[in-house]
Write a structure and sequence with these properties.
Elements lengths: L4 H11 L3 E7 L5 E7 L5 H6 L1 E3 L14 E5 L5 E2 L7 E10 L10 H15 L4 E13 L8 H8 L26 H13 L4 E6 L6 E6 L2 E2 H21 L3 E3 L13 E9 L2 E2 L12 H12 L1 H8 L5 H4 L9 E5 L5 E4 L12 E3 L8 H17 L21 H6 L7 H10 L2 H4 L6 H19 L4 H7 L3
Parallel strand pairs: 1-6, 14-15
Antiparallel strand pairs: 1-2, 3-4, 4-6, 5-6, 7-9, 7-10, 7-11, 7-12, 8-9, 12-13, 12-16, 15-16
Helix pairs in contact: 3-10, 5-6, 6-10, 7-10, 8-10, 8-12, 12-14
Length: about 475
């Protein structure tokens, strides 16, 4: 947004900002912030940064205790959720002694992935279009039955407007779209924050499932946009006395919420994924990229789906993207090729398994590294038995179905896959092996913690034993 600190300071004075927020991401994708008065926003901040305890933000406990925040001036936006006019900047974290960008900073990892793409010579830049699914609820209470949870959360008859039948809430007309005005408000706020929204609508899940799609963005900007969308959605819901959740599977028996990633590579102003004669108008480069993503998909899921809850959604036979193949029509495919993406500026594919429990910067960087590995090693997905498959799986014979590779069905499986297959992430020094090992330790501890705790549904099933 701002080319220099002088321009940023002038904007602060002209708009009368008195508060500056500095936001940064921890290792798990959650935003943290430090607030300063506008009087402290100047050359000294840009040179020396603002000191903070990096270990408290989930970074390495030895190397990150003393770190500094330095705002990325290009990321500035007005915060629509603050009563006092507030200008917000997203920060890179730096080492306190050297002022070098920290190799542990997730946002810097995304930046390094972009740089590696250019250095490898495959493309000038990548473009990413995250698609968000989430629930907006009147309230939420844990329960063992979907109907109980729906009543607590605002079921099909809750609130004003037409009641919606179960599993039939996709793109309802305005008279039935109870959340339309709130979604419109959120999207207008996002555009005020500098994020171009392609569309919004209510989704098929209930109660209150919604979707927002943004326009395609460069990798680092896409990571920022994901954080901003989650921030804006949750803040607007809270302002209206509601709750918003991006949990992958908040209700049993209802549609889960994913965060698919549309992606493209460009070089010299040309979309490298376009070939009018290819499958779905995709080029050989695009197919190699798909091959890399699908080959490394089991390991990727530890980064793109890093919660036990993620695998409540990735369940076979519920149209979830659980199969390692690509397709133009099969909803269970990990990678889908949009049918309308058949023009030079539109040719792309979407990786569907990820969800919003991921750290967006790590998820974007990891996908790019998997795709680049596919291009570098010319991994042909068809030769690897990874598609395309457009037929419904139930119409295939038993041998054909047996050859389809399934993605991990648990966080434990994904962790095992990443431990065995992480070298592709280390190319160009983008990811750090020690940090990945720390990340895996955290995931395994999360998995063990859940196993050690009784579940409400277990109680319902076995209480009278």
């Amino acid at each position: 947004m701002f080319p220099s600190i002088e321009v940023a300071q002038l904007h602060v004075r002209e708009k009368g900002y008195r508060i500056i927020d500095l936001k940064f991401s921890d290792l798990w994708g959650r935003w943290h912030q430090v607030t300063i008065p506008a009087s402290q926003f100047g050359e000294r901040l840009m040179k020396e940064g603002l000191c903070f305890d990096g270990a408290a933000a989930g970074l390495d406990s030895i190397r990150a205790e003393d770190m500094v925040l330095i705002p990325d001036l290009s990321s500035g936006f007005r915060d629509p959720l603050r009563e006092e006019p507030t200008l917000t900047f997203i920060c890179f974290t730096h080492e306190a002694d050297t002022r070098r960008r920290s190799s542990l900073d997730p946002r810097n990892i995304a930046h390094k992935a972009e740089a590696h793409l250019k250095e490898a010579g495959f493309a000038d830049h990548s473009l990413w279009g995250p698609g968000f699914e989430f629930y907006i609820l009147d309230d939420l209470a844990a329960g063992s039955e979907v109907n109980e949870a729906a009543r607590q959360g605002g079921g099909p008859a809750a609130g004003p407007g037409h009641p919606l039948p179960p599993h039939d809430r996709h793109h309802p007309p305005l008279r039935q779209a109870q959340l339309h005005d709130l979604l419109a408000e959120i999207c207008l706020e996002l555009e005020g924050m500098g994020i171009q929204v392609r569309c919004h609508h209510q989704e098929v899940g209930g109660p209150g499932q919604c979707a927002i799609d943004t326009s395609l963005l460069p990798l680092l900007e896409a990571g920022d946009a994901i954080q901003m969308v989650k921030y804006a959605v949750k803040g607007a819901a809270r302002r209206h006395g509601r709750k918003a959740t991006f949990l992958p599977k908040p209700f049993s028996g209802e549609a889960g919420s994913g965060m698919r990633f549309h992606q493209m590579l460009y070089k010299g102003g040309k979309n490298l994924f376009y070939d009018p004669g290819g499958y779905g108008s995709l080029s050989q480069t695009a197919l190699w990229c798909i091959g890399g993503l699908l080959k490394h998909a089991p390991a990727l899921l530890a980064i793109t789906n890093p919660s036990t809850h993620s695998f409540r959604r990735l369940v076979p036979d519920f149209e979830a993207p659980v199969n390692a193949f690509f397709s133009r029509g099969n909803r269970s495919a990990a990678i889908r090729v949009p049918r309308n993406a058949d023009q030079p500026g539109k040719a792309r594919f979407a990786f569907g398994p990820p969800d919003a429990t991921c750290n967006p910067y790590l998820a974007l960087a990891a996908q790019l590294m998997a795709g680049l590995d596919g291009i570098r090693n010319r991994i042909d997905p068809t030769a690897e038995g990874l598609g395309p498959i457009d037929a419904k799986l139930l119409t295939l014979d038993e041998d054909a179905r047996a050859r389809i590779r399934r993605l991990p069905t648990s966080l434990t499986e994904a962790c095992i896959a990443l431990e065995a297959d992480m070298d592709f992430l280390l190319a160009g020094g983008v990811f750090d092996r020690g940090q990945l090992q720390d990340f895996l330790s955290h995931l395994r501890a999360q998995d063990a913690d859940l196993r050690d705790r009784p579940h409400s549904y277990e109680m319902a099933l076995n209480f009278d034993a």
